[in-house]
Amino acid sequence: MKLFVFGLGYSSLRLLDLYADRFERISGTVRQPEKRARLRQSSRHRGLDVHLFDGAAHDPEIAALAGEADVLLVSVPPGLTGDPVLAAYGDTLRTGLAHVVYLSTIGVYGDHHGAWIDEETEAAADSERAKARLAAEAGWGTIAGSRLAILRLAGIYGPERNALARLRDGSARRIVKPGQVFNRIHVDDIARAIMAAVAREASGVFNVCDDEPAPPQDVIAHAAELLGIAPPPDEDYATAPMTPMARSFYASSNRVRNVRAKRDLGLELAFPTYREGLEQLWRDGEGRRGI
After folding, report:
1. How far apart are CA 73 and CA 78, in angstroms?
2. Is residue 33 in a domain?
3. pTM to 2 decimals?
4. How many CB atoms lie within 10 A of CB 32?
């Protein structure tokens, strides 16, 4: 299979770490020339064909490679003015695509006040960013139709992006909002979900999340326990100083099920809760430097 990736970021590069041998040709885009140079020089990603896409300009070479791909993975988030990939390449991509996997977010469901929801729950986006995501999902549906798998991801963590690392660098906080819970997903399980969707040429919406939604302060406490240190003190959400972006992560409280991902993709989570994920990261040495 030939794979083209719009947005060679954290999740899509992990897919290549684990499954590059499943593809005969891999091409993709980044925004910065510096990142393109790093990837081209990386021994981990030898043979990766990297192109620049600034979110606006149309590049005929990118259009040709994407149009020839058997699988298109889209990991570029939309802006408030729309999906930049659709804007630049939508007309080009209307023909020739075998299968599209679009990485979205469980944020499109809006706030259900801690209730359980699944893929049958109607999306009720209540922020501009979430509404832009829903619009992008619809746009890709117009392009790809039944060849589209939408993976709605929970909060992503993994190597260098986790509670252990935040405790190490001093940025971890235990902000407590009564009743607040949400799901997470280890980046390796995202890679497994993408590969399962590709292998089955899946169509439809799939929630890619763990099996135990939990308060964020519990995750920090467990990470501190693994490191053998005291957790940061509790901070009241109502009065804690936060940026608007940080505060937005507390806007919804949901317990999300991954029914279709398990049933239709055959997804078996390596890290069904944050505990298994953090414990593996700890065994791999995450967070212990500088503690």
Report:
1. 14
2. yes
3. 0.96
4. 10
